[in-house]
Amino acid sequence: MLAAAGAIVLLVAALIVLAWRRQPAGAKRGGERVWIFGLGLAFPAVVLAALLGFGLVIGERLMPRTAPDILRVGAEARRFAWTFTYPDLPGRRTDGVLHVPAGRPVDVAITTADVIHSFWVPRLAGKLDAVPGHVNVLRIEAEQPGTYQGVSAEFSGTGYDGFAFTVVAHAPDDWAAFMSGNETEARQ
Amino acid sequence: MNALARHRRLTAIWSSRPGWKGLFSTVNHNDVGLMFLVTAFFYFFVAGVLAMLIRAQLATPHSAFAGPEIYNQIFTMHGTLMMFLFAIPAIEGMAIYLLPKMLGTRDLAYPRLGAYGYWCYFFGGAMLLVSLLLGIAPDGGWFMYPPLTGKVYSPGINTDFWLLGITFVEISAISAAVEFTVSILRYRAPGMSLSKMPIFAWYMLVTSLMILTGFPPLILGSILLELERTFGLPFFQVELGGDSLLWQHLFWLFGHPEVYIIFLPAAGVVSTILPVMASTTLLGYRYVVAAAVALAILSFGLWVHHMFTTGIPHMGLAFFSAASTLVAVPTSVQVFAWIGTLWKGRPQLRLPMLHILGFFATFVIGGLTGVMVAVVPFDWQVHDTAFVTAHLHYVLFGGFVFPLLAALYYWLPLATGRARFFRLGEVAFALIFIGFHVTFLAMHFAGLMGQRRRISTYSPEDGWTAINLISSIGGFILAFGLVMVLIEVVLHLVVRHRAPRNLWRAGTLEWATAMLPPAYNFASLPEVDDREPLRADPDLPARLARGEGYLGEPNGMMRETLAVDVASGTPEHHVIYPGNTHLPIVLAAVTGLFFLALLLKVLWVAPLAMIGVAVLAWRWVWVLGRREDAGAVSVGCGLSLPTIAEVDRPPGWWGSVFLLVADATLFGSLLFGYAFLWTIAPGWPPPEWIAPSAIVVALAGVGVALSIIGPFFATRANAGGSNPAVGLALSLAGSAAIAAALVAMLMMAPSPTGHAYGATLLVLGGYGILHAIVVALMAAFLIARVRAGYTSPRRRAEIAILPVWGAYGGGIAVVILLAAYLPVALS
């Protein structure tokens, strides 16, 4: 995308610079057909159609789909903390740290207790807003065990600067430990 | 009468009162346009200083320069001032000043309305400025998302300053848009058909129609949020049936067209200046106009692209993603038409051209990053990061500020009659161009590295230190460049270095006025048969000064011009403008009192201020017109035309139609909000429904019928020479019946504070009642005018306006009752 954008910028710049080139009087310099229909209409139509198709395919791939081993977790934001719940472990809550198994798709059900926030773990997925009264579902998947930084990415007043959280992706053994309630061990 | 005597006579007729006190009573577009521009650039300076504070804060990690409380005010006000108090008013000022000259006429359609708009802008802007100085400025971000901006999380007065101040200022945008639309369609030089109109006028026509349909959703959103904050009507509170997403829809229904409302006039400037800089004409005029229209229409289909991360279903996003990429097509038609124009002509690197090249470089990059963020998965990552901040600055600085600077250097000699003496502009351009790209190119990378928008500080471990320092240094270079522009303008005013007439060898009519232009623009109005009249006839200015065009002989002390047929430009009516008056500033002050009362929560003053507005509005229209028939008036060149009091479609009729376009958009937005809450908001159905009442329906039915029949009878009776008072009285009774029916409806509605359903019904009913009062006042006014002898079978123009308003007031009453009763009756 960057390379294509760069190429288009260079093309436009070259066309502008070439306008200063002196040509013999009466030389034909392209009429409405070339400029309006060729470069103005056809050129962007082709480029944009390609880009749009590409974006749609990628977007569809990122959508939450049904799969056999999906884990569901809940994420509720409030100024200025995230609380995570685990439907598979009734009663279990973690504050500021979301525990997930590595290598398994996870659906995060995002909502908020006060103003609008946004759930964003850059290395795991794009962002999705936490809107009062609505639950938005974001699919994330950590391929490797480890710790991933997340932030709230919707301005929420004073305190927004440091409004962050962590996602810990566990290897299968650690995940089993977490599931069995041994949180201290699982936290590493 | 020789040219000098004519000049003296016309100057006496058209000038504002002498001295600085004259500014308070002037209605002349030459004054009002410059007042808009000077004020807008003042806010550009203030908002620029705020930008410098932001860059100072972010230059280093753990900055202790401003705490988050102050920083939140700074960035909120930077965006707010730039958008609402700089960009839009600068466009208004430029168009107010230039349009009559380009169109070959003497003033805009409603001179007093232009002045009223200015004073609304002045007072509303002053409110925001005061909040900034007192440290109680809005701090919820320029798009003000509730519930953060609701009473619970923003209990202070800060948010109210935004909602009330901006709504107050938007009165000026709406009034300017009505004025531009009617002026461009009807107030042109004789013979100037639509296809011979200067390209800038086309762009401003499209922009004005966009303002009329783009601003009302924001005005409605601001009204609803302020009602929630002041009276507890829960439109955006989810626990009471509201939904914060409603605000986002209303805001971006405005916010995206807003970008094009800012860009299109700038594109009009480029389309005007660039061909002159290349000594040629614009390539593909018709296609450029078509592209501007297409852009305007498409821009209303993309607001959701600001909401890609709010959880809207993906196929819905796909539609808006497609629309967002599609909008690049008409933009590209314009860009390549401009480059083709350069190829067609012989471009020269004069100062305005430098800024146009700066525009190309910056805007094309901004457009391409815009296409990137239109791709949904990419947006999910960069949304609300510095990448988006960088993108929007490329679009707005590239697409607006560079063309505006080109316009400044291009038209300043016209406005002052002077040429530049010191050559600071080239250096200033270099600083601005380099400074801008250093600042915002760096900011793209900060965003891609994960830096969020609106954070007040960051730590060294984030790894953004170097990139932010670079960005800040660029920002200060940019600021130096802009200050140099300011210095050059000041020097320009101080150093008396006379500019030659038409120094760029342009072909449009603004260069056919004297430099600087006299208050009346043209001593006589040209007959136009070319898109560039000055190129076709270089002798035109002298001929006009000699009085060889229309209206060359001043008539008493009247400010006269001509109104033409929309399509062909054939002269149709003789127009008399009102002269200097304090009414605009007084009306704006009383309007301001209304907003101030709401702001300071002295609520009992607000209805008094509204009565004051009604009284002044009455006075406003009363001072026009006369008590005897004028017949056909000679306008020179052997032509006689009816004067505007003696036609079927007077300027007031045209203005009413376009004002009602904006009004209907506001009403439509309200219905959209009603449907949105009903279908999307989680807290529905409401605990209780309204009880439909047959009496209310019957009463409203009578009212609607009378509102439509009454004005019809009045017009017919007046044309036939009998007294129209009976018809007018029927209209008055109709409005009263509608108001009574709606009041009765509201009395049977659930509590407006208990659930968003009741709140929405209250606003719907209130909207209908307000309009019934306005229509009733109009009918009462006309009855008074008939009694005072201001109407006759010939002087029919005033009565001709009532049917439009009567039909609108009746129509919305029907829709309101349907919206309130039909869903309940069906379920």
Can you lay out the helices and strands and say which pair or pack?
The complex is a heterodimer of chains A (188) and B (827).
Chain A: H1 2-18, H2 32-62, E1 71-78, E2 81-85, E3 93-95, E4 97-101, E5 106-112, E6 117-120, E7 128-130, E8 136-140, E9 146-152, E10 164-170, H3 172-179, H4 183-187
Parallel strand pairs in A: 1-5, 4-10
Antiparallel strand pairs in A: 1-2, 2-3, 5-8, 6-7, 6-9, 9-10
Chain B: H1 3-14, H2 29-58, H3 68-102, H4 111-133, H5 158-186, H6 199-231, H7 244-277, H8 285-299, H9 314-326, H10 328-344, H11 351-374, H12 376-382, H13 386-416, H14 425-448, H15 465-494, H16 533-536, H17 540-545, E1 559-564, E2 571-577, H18 583-599, H19 605-622, E3 632-636, E4 639-642, H20 651-680, H21 694-719, H22 725-747, H23 756-788, H24 797-826
Antiparallel strand pairs in B: 1-2, 3-4
What does this structure look like?
The complex is a heterodimer of chains A (188) and B (827). The model of chain A has no long low-confidence stretch (mean pLDDT 86). Chain A folds into two domains: 2-62, no CATH class; 71-187, Cupredoxins -  blue copper proteins (Immunoglobulin-like, Sandwich). Chain A is α+β, with helices and mostly antiparallel strands and 188 residues long. Chain A has helices spanning 2-18, 32-62, 172-179, 183-187; strands spanning 71-78, 81-85, 93-95, 97-101, 106-112, 117-120, 128-130, 136-140, 146-152, 164-170. Chain A is built from four helices and ten strands. In chain A, the strands form two sheets. Chain A has a five-stranded mixed β-sheet, with no helix packed on it. In chain B, the strands form two sheets. Chain B has a two-stranded antiparallel sheet with strand order 1-2. Chain B has three domains: 3-494, Cytochrome c oxidase-like, subunit I domain (Cytochrome C Oxidase, Chain A, Up-down Bundle), CATH 1.20.210.10; 582-622, no CATH class; 685-826, Four Helix Bundle (Hemerythrin (Met), subunit A) (Up-down Bundle), CATH 1.20.120. In chain B, 66% of the residues lie in helices and 3% in strands. Chain B is mostly helical and 827 residues long. The model of chain B has no long low-confidence stretch (mean pLDDT 94). The longest helix of chain B has 35 residues, at 68-102. In chain B, strand 1 (559-564) and strand 2 (571-577) form a beta hairpin. Classes of the chains: A alpha+beta (188), B mainly alpha (827). At the A-B interface, helix 1 and helix 2 of A face helix 3, helix 9, helix 10, helix 11 and helix 12 of B.
